[in-house]
Amino acid sequence: MVYRFVFILACLSPFLAWAQNTDVKILDTVYLTDQQLKSFNTGQKQTHISDSVIHSQSFSLTDVLQRESHIYFKQNGYGMVSSASFRGTTASQTAVIWNGININSVLTGQTDFNTLLSANFSSIDIKAGGGSVLYGSGAIGGSVHLNQDLSQRIEEEHEFQTGYGSFNTFESRYQYKNQWDNFKLKLAYARRQSDNDFDIPNQNRNNLNGQFEMNSLDAIVALDVSDHHQLQYFGNYSFGERNFSLLRPSDPKTKFDNSDSRNMLAWQSQWKNMQSKLKLAHLTENFTFYDNLDRDTSSSSSVNTNWLQYEFWIEWQKVKINAILNYQSATAEGNQLENAQRDVAGISFLFQHQLFKDFEYEITLRQDVNDDFENPFLISLGAVYEVKPYWNMRWHASKNYRLPGFNDLFWVSGGNTNLNPETAYQTEIGTALNFKRLNFSVTGFYNNISDMIRWLPDANGIWRPQNTQEVNTYGVEASSAFRYKLASGQQINLKTQYSYTVSENQKTGNQLIYVPFHQANANLAYVSGKWSLGVDWMYNGSVFTRTDNDPNHQVEDYQLFDMQFSWRFPQLLNSKLSLRALNIFDLAYEAVDNRPMPGRSFSINLITHF
Amino acid sequence: MKTILKITVLCLSLLILACSSDDDNLSPTVPQGEFDQGFFVLNEGGIGSVTYISDDFSRIEQNIFSSVNNGQDLGQFVQSLFFDNNNRAYIISNGSNLITVVDRFTFEKLGEITTDLDIPRYGVVFNNKAYVTNQASFTTGEDDFVAVINLDTFEVENTILIGETVEFIKSSNDRLFVQNAAFGFGNKISVIDPNSSIIENQIQTESGLQNIEINNNSLYALHSSGLDIYDLNNLNPTSTLVLPESLSGAKNLQIFNNEAYYTFGTSVYKSNLNGTTLSGEVLFSYESSSEFGSMYGFKVHESQIYLSDAGDFASDGFIEIYDTEGNFVFETAVGLAPNGFYFN
Question: What separation in angstroms does the CA of B5 have from each of A207, B89, B235, B293, B314?
């Protein structure tokens, strides 16, 4: 398969050489590898989380997203395995995209959001709804984009942040960036560790065996070779050790070590109205699970993925076209995997057209080539109509898919290589109002997911994954943002989000377990010159824990309030000191059945720049 | 990672419970406690629970351990229960390395055993000591052992390394028998002298050993091709009843009134032990809402057949009761993943 792409690249190269002769440079140099995120999103809603918001929260990606997005997280105790349910879908139906690359685990098909630290990302974008044409397997409920961007011009800067809080929690990060002529560099290291031994009052004990430490080492290097060509390197190395909290003191103590690396090299070329991007990436995931620390027995798996993507962009008058060739090859080794290897190639074609001044539409197509599956043909259609300068209507429809994970396919006893991909058809319609002080958006969506993979015993009693379930999800998402300037230097900001989600098993008519009907969050901030005060509110509705929706077996709804007070000292190393209190009313709650969560906690945090 | 945990849990859930012989307890006419004159259904969980059902079916109470003991729970994955001779019941939770000791008639908690266990599964009492099989590491059978528990102190006072997969444990008048087979894999039975705690013999059967039972001075072993019967005096095989090939993989062996009962899929079969073959004729079948989790627990007790169905393991299961001719008697919903029946 790889030869086919080399061939295509070879065919393109004379064209590239020709293209180099045009010397008018119009397109901005944007060191953004996930350019589709900005360019091809007609009809879909995206939420942007800036670095200042990221740095005002804990380093936990779960914590940040719970307070800033519609995504529901099923966290198996604080800091433990954390999986997403986006628009009522399952954990493997949210794609996590690192600089444009899908980094969901090849083994499980999902991302454990507590193995990633948010601190070193320059921004996080959340895209609701299908995105498989662009982001491949798993982009069904939506996608979470972790971006490491470099700005046009960089001044030398050291940034240091450190914090300490309840349960012996340390968070520190250091970032250095600089530019020497046409060479730019950003290096960052972040670490988060906690004893995580919070009180569980109604059991008269502490959280046991919950300690964890996570690290993230990140690098971006960019070299402007000429006006037209840049070379870029992006690297992330995430590694951590995490013990799993006990339900009872006598439970066996278990531990999970992970180390995952992502390295990407990109060669970007641009001319007047064309761009060419070649990206090569190597991804690894490794974990070791210790099933009993007293015994020190373990099992482990490792995955290597090679990833190649070529993108060709062209803009002509009001038309934008992007063609993408993608190839990925993954191999896995582990105690419980057999012959785990997969190659997938895909070809995508994206077309966007501003038909009228107030109407834009886009069409995207993708065909995968793969020997192991029925190869789905994916399509998405989107349109935006600007009714008034401050009011727009949008519509989007797409077909998306999720490939079975390696555990589903190659598990030593039970793996099923005859599985089909899960497929999802969805549509959404939304409207947004944008005034100077107020933004408001509401979206209705519908999603039909079939061939969902579940592990069930076969006729011989051996558990095997099978394509069985069909689920319909539908609901409404609303969000608003309000800004008001009181006097000079004083401002009030209020952001709110609410979602109503039905996720219905078509066989039983029941709501899926661990999908709340209602979910909401809000953030109120008062900024006055050098200091600011913020209040976060978060609400998760009750969830069923049994598939028959037995009302006696639910995790109760809960709402949490957090407070934050910050003071800036520009004269002293451009510092900012923050005091944070989470769960200020000390609510005893569970996020998952029998998994108590922490009560009130405090932290103090300092950021300096020099 | 989640998937791996899930699969581990699923594998654990696959093991079907056999029941210890406690038929020698005569039911007294005066109830000895709230839960006398009835039976318990063990619900594996998640967090496990116990359902009580009175012999006349007039009382069905869910989650009795928590109700009696101020909301305490039994730990994760309640695997099995055994009784001693002092009216105590021992409830084994394999996911929490925990054995909870209760009064068998009142279900009041009397103590717990939490140390020196490693994925405990099944237990039996011999000479005022409990012998509990422990699976230890999931990845190897080499560390599997039997914990010997002092029933006065509730402490593990000795361990017998078996070194191969351990599953059910049964006792005769003078010996312990540990099944070295699980998940339908394995074909050995270790014979232990409880006085010396030494494995003095190992019986080998055909492949796919499912269950062992002890009844009337005989040891019965159901495997993929038939039912072997051994004389307990000399451990010599006395006869083998051939299983029809179409029923290979039959499980849930019970011996009652000189007849063998076993299940395949959602059907129950019975055969007279004097014959040479096991019957392939269905005694009765029941309807399962799903194909998995059927016959998750099975027991023949005093002319009645008890079976349980775990549904999808994520909602409450149910039990059904039939007479030994296959006539329907009773059914009711119980807790999450019901896996066994125990009689007061």
Answer: 20, 30, 40, 19, 15
ipTM above 0.85, yes or no: no
Chain A neighbors of B112, CB-CB under 8 A:
250
Cβ of A590 under 8 Å from any chain B Cβ?
Answer: no
User: Which residues on adjacent β-strands are paired with residue B331?
Assistant: B320
* Nearest chain B alpha carbon to A257: B1
Other beta carbons less than 10 A from residue A197's beta carbon: 18
A294 vs B contacts (CB less than 8 Å): 118
Whether the CA torsion A85, A87, A89, A94 is positive or negative: it is negative
Mean pLDDT for back-to-back runs of 10 residues, chain A (610 residues) = 40 38 38 78 92 92 94 94 93 94 93 95 94 92 93 90 96 96 95 96 91 97 92 96 93 94 94 92 95 87 95 92 94 86 92 94 92 83 95 96 89 83 94 94 95 72 77 96 89 96 93 94 93 95 92 94 94 92 95 93 95
The candidate with the shortest Cα–Cα distance to A153, out of A244, A28, A45, is: A28
Whether A460 sits inside 8 A of B249 (CB atoms) is yes
The dihedral built from the CA positions of residue B215, B219, B223 and B227, taken in this order, carries a sign that is negative
Distance, in Å, from the CA atom of A522 to the CA atom of A518, rounded to the nearest integer, reads 14
CB contact under 8 A, A594 and B47: yes
The model's pTM: 0.86
Min Cα–Cα distance to chain B from A90, Å: 12
**Which tokens in the block code for residue A535?**
């209040």
Q: What is the Cα–Cα distance from B286 to B297, expressed in whole angstroms?
A: 13
Look up residue B143 and give its amino acid. Answer: D
Residues in chain A within 8 Å Cβ distance of B98: 248, 250
Whether residue A514 contacts residue A85, with contact meaning beta carbons closer than 8 Å, is answered with yes
Query: CB of A574 within 8 A of CB of A610?
Result: yes
CA distance B152 to chain A (A): 20
Task: Tell me the shortest Cα–Cα distance from A576 to chain B, in angstroms.
Answer: 38
Contacts of B14 in chain A (CB under 8 A): 457, 461, 463
- Please tell me if residue A322 touches chain B, with a CB cutoff of 8 Å: no
B230: β partners: B219, B237
